[in-house]
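Anyone opening a protein record will find just a pair of labelled lines. The record below illustrates this layout.
***
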Amino acid sequence: MPKITSDQLAIIAMSMALVVLIELTLFNNGTVFILILGALFLFFSFKKKKRYLLWTGLVLLFFAIINIWTLRLLIIGVLIFILYQYLTKKEQVMEIKSQLANTSNQNILIGTTGAPTESYHWKDIHIQRFIGDITIDTTETILPNGKSIIVIHQSLGKVRIIVPYEVTIQLHYSTLYGEAACLHYAPKQCINEQLHFEDGEMDAKRVLVLYVTSWIGDVEVQRG
């Protein structure tokens, strides 16, 4: 499938918005207020974390959509595309391994050369993906002292993270709909929620912080 550039996507989005605006202006003057009101309810539901605002916004948007033909066609096309992508998705597996730090040593004729205290270095991980499952294995790396961070933004799909036994874990999970299964904690179903899990010693030298956000998707953290 040919890749769509950001300029092409912007043109498509503006064209669709223009078509919807023309229809609203010529044929459905009242529907635009329902559309704007529904969008505002959704915005404040994310900001205030109130479920009744979320459902009110969704109902208003539903009534607005069924009265706008261009939005119906747009949503049908988007849903077909998303369904196709989801059915043909491939799981992204990432195994994080230790990397030798770039060092420069000078030849010393007299004296004692000590072993480096930090043989490996860690780079924080940031992943963004629209559709598909993600598996990240960090058991083959050596985490440095302090906090190491993994950030994952996922729209649709499951995120699975395998972490070392001896490292303290902090998980920050935010989703519209999904399930969180973190280590020995009981799985928790989430609807427009933010969760925080922590496992390990509070004053540990090494802490792995996980930030996972999704629209619809589960998260699973296990030690391996």
Notes: Helices lie at 6-26, 31-48, 51-65, 69-87. Confidence is low (pLDDT under 50) at residues 99-119. The chain has four helices and eleven strands.
